[in-house]
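Hi Prof. W.,

I finally got the Tissue inhibitor of metalloproteinase prediction working! I wasn't sure whether to trim anything, so I left the full sequence exactly as given:
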Amino acid sequence: MKYKFLLLTFFLPLHIFACKCANEPTIKESFNTATLVFIGEVYDLSEAPNGYKTSKNTLSKVKISKVYKPDFYNDFYNENATLFHSQLHSCDVLFSEKGKYLIFAYISKDTGYLYSDHCLVQKRLDQVTPEDLKELQILSNDYLTQLKTLKTNTPTVTDDLIDEDINVSENMIGKHLKELSDIRSENKNLKMIAFFSIIVILIFLIIILILRRRLKTIEK
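And this is what came out:
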């Protein structure tokens, strides 16, 4: 029984499904990657079970006060939004405390909810520096100028829709490629850990067998 318990402990470190980012997120990278960037106040929280034992989804309602990077359809998300968090997604950011935040978010086209992850900058407003705000404003001005130019140079409504879909698709493809790379990296690490764990277990069993034989020899 002791041996079985000891062998079991070798497998405990395999639970390492943590969010992994390519590097430390910056304001500029987060701005370029996110679909929506704004300052908002989380004023209400609600939870709902998602069907996996005690795991829950969280909805954080946000009152938007300033938008730095609007969605292409700038009629949306000007005043209110809902941030979605799932415990099943290791990279999701949980806005569990009420207060004001600088938020870099993606838009779920299926639900209309916003969601964010740990590979984007996320700060409470009291942690945002004047330099951060200055950089954000410059990025915002450049983005709005590009957006205005794009709309001005687009001749028809059909072309507008095509450009919008391409813009959304590029963002989603980039995010999915990053998630796929993270999953592959996690799987590689798990395989390595499992391989070395098996080696350690085999060595441990061999040592036990050798010791048992020596004990039998001594007893004889």
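Residues 1-16 have pLDDT under 50 and may be disordered. Does that look reasonable to you?

Thanks,
D.
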